[in-house]
């Protein structure tokens, strides 16, 4: 019986901790279109994962760990945030496979209702099978539902 109560308490504790972290899901449009997901890590830092089509024919997956650098108080209606962070990226398409590192710098605005707008710059550097050195970059506009 003690084990059941302990397991139930742990499950409820982990569920409460996971639900307390802010999350956002939406799209990021730049050179292609990405499905974008952000997950807060307690405090202000967050992980962003993007799955999308670059150039509308190249499937890519990128994940970045973003540090919130500044949150200027320009308005009391919402919240601004300036962030940057490193990550990894994998891509494939038309007989090509790429793997590399990624970097992201961005500015976001979260409204007082659950909507978030962002603009960011991503740089990828890596190697590829079928195309050698790989170093694309993109500027993207994002819109996400924050929950």
Keywords, please?
147 residues
Q: Can you give a write-up of this model?
A:
The protein has one helix at residues 2-20, and strands spanning 23-29, 33-40, 46-54, 58-70, 79-93, 96-110, 115-129, 132-134, 137-146. By secondary structure, it is mainly beta. It has an 8-stranded antiparallel barrel with strand order 1-2-3-4-5-6-7-9. A hairpin with a 3-residue loop joins strand 1 (23-29) and strand 2. The longest helix has 19 residues, at 2-20. The chain is elongated and about 50 Å long. The chain starts with a helix and ends with a strand.
Give the overall average pLDDT.
84
Element string (H = helix, E = strand): HEEEEEEEEE
Helical element count? 1
Determine Rg (CA atoms, Å).
18 Å
Structural class: mainly beta
Oligomer: single chain
How much of the residues is beta strand, in percent? over 45%
How many β-strands, per DSSP? 9
Read across the widest sheet, the strand sequence of neighbours is 1-2-3-4-5-6-7-9
Residue share in helices?
Answer: 10-25%
Shape: elongated
Poorly predicted residue ranges: 14-20
Helix-strand blueprint:
Layout: H1 2-20, E1 23-29, E2 33-40, E3 46-54, E4 58-70, E5 79-93, E6 96-110, E7 115-129, E8 132-134, E9 137-146
Antiparallel strand pairs: 1-2, 1-9, 2-3, 3-4, 4-5, 5-6, 6-7, 7-8, 7-9
Q: Summed up, what is this model?
A:
This protein has 147 residues and is mainly beta.
């Amino acid at each position: 019986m003690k084990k059941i109560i302990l397991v139930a308490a742990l499950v409820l504790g982990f569920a409460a901790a996971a639900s307390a972290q802010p999350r956002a899901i939406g799209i990021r449009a730049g050179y292609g279109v990405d499905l974008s997901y952000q997950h807060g890590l307690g405090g202000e830092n967050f992980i962003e994962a993007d799955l999308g089509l670059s150039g509308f024919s190249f499937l890519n997956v990128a994940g970045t760990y973003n540090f919130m650098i500044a949150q200027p108080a320009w308005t009391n209606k919402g919240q601004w945030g300036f962030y940057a962070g490193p990550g990894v990226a994998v891509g494939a398409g038309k007989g090509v496979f790429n793997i590399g590192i990624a970097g992201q710098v961005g500015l976001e605005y979260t409204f007082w209702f659950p909507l978030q707008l962002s603009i960011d710059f991503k740089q990828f550097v890596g190697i590829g099978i079928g195309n050698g050195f790989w170093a694309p970059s993109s500027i993207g506009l994002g819109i996400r539902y924050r929950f």
